[in-house]
Amino acid sequence: MTEWITNTMVSLGYLGIGLLMFLENLFPPIPSELIMPLAGYTVSQGKMEMIPAILAGIIGTILGAFPWYYAGKFVGEERLRQLADKYGKWITVSGADIDKANNWFTRYGGVAVFLCRLVPGVRTIISLPAGLNDMPLIPFLIYSTIGTALWVSFLTGAGYLLGEHYDLVDEYLGPVSKIVLLSLVIWFGLWILRRNMRKNAE
After folding, report:
1. pTM (global) more than 0.90
2. I want to staple 37 with a disulfide (CB 3.0 to 4.6 A). Which of 42, 96, 166, 179 is the partner?
């Protein structure tokens, strides 16, 4: 995987970054945690510029969100869940993943789109419930772009600072991302609990 990502980026440059990030959104096993740090390392070598590299990553990610968004909009929740359970093993997406992302979106709407763009594993799938719930395209793009810009900039900057050890981002971010996800779940759970207690008190 690493060799293929490297060859694609070396041969296609900024277009390669955009293409890889587009594919990362369609096929979650392709890790953005490896693509953008490699781009940052390439920038540190003077072979690319930082801003165009980040922009390429953002554009590729946003373009990759459209297929999921429109799948949710036109295919429907029940059919998507059936397809995910039947074929999702090829892209590591299950019906349960769709339910989880949909629950997040139902509770938090646009904020969920923004936050989930910062959480590996959930960041790709959040486009589905946005489509399922008929979220208007412009707000979807705004929240997605802001979250994506932060994520892509962080990964690219980390790769730039780490230099030839850019692959450490992927190695260490996996456990960290699980901690972040757990923290968000706990925080949201406490928020719901307080809200319910307030309603009962009223």
Report:
1. no
2. 166
